[in-house]
UniProtKB/TrEMBL annotation:
Gene3D superfamilies: 3.10.450.40. Residues 39-80 form the Cell wall elongation regulator TseB-like domain. Coiled coil: none annotated. InterPro entries: Cystatin_sf, TseB-like_dom. This is Peptidase. It comes from the Bacteria. The chain crosses the membrane at residues 6-24. Keywords: Membrane, Transmembrane, Transmembrane helix.
Amino acid sequence: MKKWIIFSIIIIAIIILWQFISIYQTAMSPVKDQIEKGVAVAQKGAELQTVEDVAAYNGTDSYVIVQGTDSEKEELVVWVKESKEIVHTMKMNDGIPKEEVLNYLQTDREPKEIISISLAMEKNTPLWEIKYKDINDQYNLYYVKFENGEYFQRIIF
């Protein structure tokens, strides 16, 4: 009797796990498709030879942001809009480095916890998006311009 109950519980747990995995894969497939198409557009349009990092950004509009190198081994960033068009391409050297953004944030804002720093795009302006918690445990989105590090926008919630 005990073996039958244990066996039933294991079968039910497997079915529940299988359903969770299935739902997750179904929910994530449009994002995965968007990223794959964005990478293909970036590789073709900006002639990227290698892709080093890819991120999806969903702000006012949705973008796939692809970082990679071209045939001359220059590091590029390509912002691809959801309409599958390249809206901006820049050399990484033409923007401020992630470390500089991090240093500025730590001295100016004194975050309690930095969650992430990633590239973004708003109003056709390439940005760094910094997600962090402040000393009041408020979640902050802090945007600075990729080209020069100027303040762009801050959202607190």
